[in-house]
Amino acid sequence: MRTNPSKDAMLSQGVRSGRAARLVKYLLLSPVFCLGLVAQGRAADQFPADTAFVRNAEQVGAQEIADSRDALAKSKDPAILAVAKQMQDDGNVITQRLTTFAVEKGWPTPTLDPPHTMSHYSDHHYVVGQIQAGQHALAFYTEEAANGADTQLQEYARETVPTLRKRLASLRSLRTS
Hints:
This protein has helices at 5-12, 19-38, 42-46, 48-74, 78-105, 123-147, 151-176. It is an all-alpha fold and 177 residues long. It has one domain: Ferritin, core subunit, four-helix bundle (Ferritin, Up-down Bundle). Helix 2 packs antiparallel against helix 4 (48-74). The radius of gyration is 16 Å and the shape is elongated. It starts with a helix and ends with a helix. The relative contact order is 0.16.
């Protein structure tokens, strides 16, 4: 029986359940959730892949902000606290820019699923989950930057990619320190 490679990767890294697994599952299934969003308006109908990108990016951003808030409240490690603060601040700016963009375009702004919270926080799971989410976010932002139909959204994605790369590098340095 063939298994999901993303799930296998998470299991091999010690993430058996929780927020990281739900976030990766969401990212993998998100085009299905976006089909309803596409039907909401004519402007959205013209750019279905772009509206799907907006939905994905806003949901991931909301989860990242919630995860970083948890880390800020529960971690004792100064390095984790510094990165979590930067992740939260960047996430707020990125998500706000994206929401403003969608409103200006007349695209429906998605009703976000409430972010999940960890019942048992650990620095390890925070870092591993954020690295996995960051890799997926970087992939779909890079895809939008290269192939987006709306040139303004494509430029937004292109401008955001360096920030995502920098954040991913910061998270990876935590794993090795």
